[in-house]
C-alpha cells in the first residue's frame, strides 16, 4: 500500500489474487519450490539451502549478507529482516477492518498458507 499508493481494499484484493494463484501453483506444479516470506525471514539459512538444492546453478548463497533494500524503514543496507510485526503495527484499525472484509471471503486460501485474520485495534 505504502509504496504503490494503493488503498486497503485494492491491496487486499491484489494480495488474495497472488496468494490464490501461488497456492494453486504449489498444489499443482510437479517441480515447484514453495517458500514464504515467513520461512525466509525466520530461517534464512534453511531457505537458502532449499534454493541452492532447487537451483544448483545459483551456487552458494550467503544468507547473512547485507544488501540495499527499500522498506518501511527507508533505503538502507541490511540482512534479511522480518518486518511483519512493524508493518502490521503501522496499520490502522480501519485499514485492518477493510482488508478483513476481503480476506474473510478467502479463508481457504489464507488457511492454505497458514495465515489468520488480524483483529483490528
Can you describe this structure in just a few lines?
With 121 residues, this protein is mainly alpha-helical.
Entry keywords:
single chain; two-stranded antiparallel sheet; 121 residues; mainly alpha
- What is the string of helix and strand elements? HHHEEHHH
List the uncertain runs: none
Q: Strand fraction band?
A: 5-15%
Oligomer: single chain
Q: What's the helical proportion of residues?
A: 40-55%
Q: What's the total helix number?
A: 6
Biggest sheet, spatial arrangement of strands: 1-2
Explain what the structure shows.
The protein is built from 6 helices and 2 strands; from the N terminus they run αααββααα. The chain is mainly α. The chain has one domain. It has a two-stranded antiparallel sheet. α1 (about 10-30) packs across α5 (about 95-105). The two termini are about 20 Å apart. The model has no long low-confidence stretch (mean pLDDT about 95).
Element layout with pairings:
Blueprint: H1 8-28, H2 37-42, H3 44-54, E1 67-71, E2 74-78, H4 84-89, H5 93-103, H6 107-112
Amino acid at each position: 500500500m505504502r509504496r504503490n499508493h494503493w488503498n486497503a481494499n485494492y491491496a487486499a484484493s491484489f494480495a488474495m489474487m497472488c496468494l490464490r494463484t501461488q497456492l494453486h501453483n504449489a498444489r499443482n506444479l510437479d517441480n515447484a519450490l514453495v517458500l514464504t516470506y515467513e520461512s525466509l525471514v525466520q530461517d534464512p539459512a534453511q531457505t537458502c539451502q532449499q534454493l541452492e538444492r532447487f537451483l544448483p546453478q545459483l551456487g552458494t548463497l550467503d544468507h547473512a549478507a547485507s544488501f540495499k533494500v527499500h522498506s518501511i524503514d527507508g533505503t538502507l543496507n541490511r540482512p534479511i529482516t522480518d518486518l511483519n510485526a512493524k508493518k502490521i503495527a503501522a496499520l490502522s484499525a480501519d485499514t485492518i477492518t477493510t482488508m478483513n472484509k476481503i480476506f474473510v471471503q478467502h479463508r481457504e486460501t489464507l488457511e492454505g498458507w497458514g495465515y489468520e485474520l488480524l483483529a483490528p485495534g
